[in-house]
## 1
Amino acid sequence: MANIDFSKLENMFKSSSNFSLSAQQYEKIVGRKMPKNKYYLTKKSALATFARTRGFTVVVQEETIRTISFEKI
């Protein structure tokens, strides 16, 4: 499987404030569907690793529309 390109998210992380993305926004920006497994998404995914290296953690907010937030550590 090819590497996932998160470069379009870089400016959001550089803002150094918390932000959120819906599953639809994530798919549009990244070009792939958001992982469905909550543990994997927040701890083991390429996105979680990318976020951690930029000082953020992934938090899943289960609502009618699935949204993930990035919170400054």
## 2
Amino acid sequence: MWRGLNWNKIIFLGIFLAVVSMLAAVNFIFELSLKGYRPVWRNTAVQQPVNSQLEADYPKQINGLFQKYILSNAPITTDHLTQLNEELLTVKVPAKYKRLHWQLVKDLDVLKTGADQTARKAAYAELQSLQDQYLWLSKTLAQFLLAIY
């Protein structure tokens, strides 16, 4: 069966199919670009639109969550920390405060799980450092941290 085929024809056919496939792929990409499709590459940062209302409401929401536990005048238990963490996870976070929010959730989780004493102290210290970085949070967070210990 293979005796009648010329190797030159097989090589030509392979090269021809590769060129046709590449041309089809280029044509497909060109057609997508005409339709307005713009791919988002994995390693490029996607700029999120700034929602000024969300940025203005976020500090009020976070302070309100902490105030709820401070004003109760009851000792803050692990159940309270669990509930606070769950409430924090439902808050819509603007891009400006994502790092802060992640830090709050992470450190409160360490405090509630009853991890070893060094981890708890580190989480407590990180929460205290957030007071210096975010002045709008400092008073509420300081009162909350006093209520924990």
## 3
Amino acid sequence: MQTLIKFALGLAKKILAHPATGRGAWCRHLLLRSTAALLISCVIAPTVSGEDSSPVKLPPRIRAALAENASFFSGAHIKGQRDRRFLADAKTVLRALKTVVTEDDFTQSLRFELRFKGPLFRESIEYLPADNVYTRDAIYEISYDGTRFMLGYKRLKDPAFLSNVQIFTPAIATEYGKLQGDADSLAHMKFWYLHETGFTGPQTMASLGRPVASAILEAAARGQIVSLRDAPDGNKELVEVVIRAPEPWQSRSTFDIETHEPFTSLKNGTDAMQMRIEKERRQLAGKQRLIRFWLNRTLGYAVVEKWEMREHTGETMFHTKNSDFVKVTGGNVWLPNRSVVESFADLTAPLYVSPRPLYETSIRIDQCTSATFDDDAFRIWYAEPGVVVTDWTSRKATLQEPDQYQVPASPDDSPKPSSS
């Protein structure tokens, strides 16, 4: 094994020592990709669980610390901002990602707010002033209040213009999604901060009702821990955990691409882009990602650095560094006030991974505190007259024809309450 590692490192040095252009540059990229995959197999494969080895288990002290960290979200209030900047020529990046999004929209700053109470959540994303008429000065929201699953869109300067609330139960939302060819078509939860700091929230309709959990503990429960060791840089404060997980970009849709009318009718602009993305996502079926975490022992095993890689190629897709840690409870729970992510890939081009980072995402936290919320805090409702409410839980609603009305100017004009 040591011989293979030395061979791979020597090969990488030789490749990097000889710059190339044109067709030679492409060949050089392929060789580097193959070398990276060889190194990953050499370093990680010896600890993979399988027929001849026991599953990798986390020590009790790490399990306890990760569980304590996740428990913070049983009642938490978080506010922050997400910013992006290009790390290469903007036009080149957008062309590589095959997106129709403009430079300004791609780098638009977003404010976000997260509220958690056990399995209940509300995520609010505010689009700051920009050139895009639909997204500027607007808030998108998604929530689960224990019974209802809700989506909201509110214009801040003119609430009556296009603002709306959609109300489902998880079961109805799932059936509605199936009509579109994907049971999770409404599961638009982002949870950027959770993802970069080693936690996982609800990601599908079926997972609504589950509280925020440690991504590593979730992987351990599924037998997906690949390796556990001291971090290879020699820093004794750090421990490295590698997990294997199904490729999250692979499509969950089951409709026939050639005959599904809503899909075959996608012809131009963003519609055509969605068609291409769906076709590429289907090519990722059965693929896996390796996610490498560095945990800091002195910070309650908080995630200080993270890499996501394609297992079959060894390509790095994302590299996250967390910093400015603060203690958020009376115990030993530490969370970062800053996360910086270098992206080598993007969902708009699911099959493409750049050899160099394309853009950087910065997440800055302004508030991260324990909080106690009433259940009503997870109900999305806009009281401004003219807001359109589309209610699939009403007694008058069917899956194809929901009950729809506008928020009245007077309480006397209110429709009868819906039945949940």
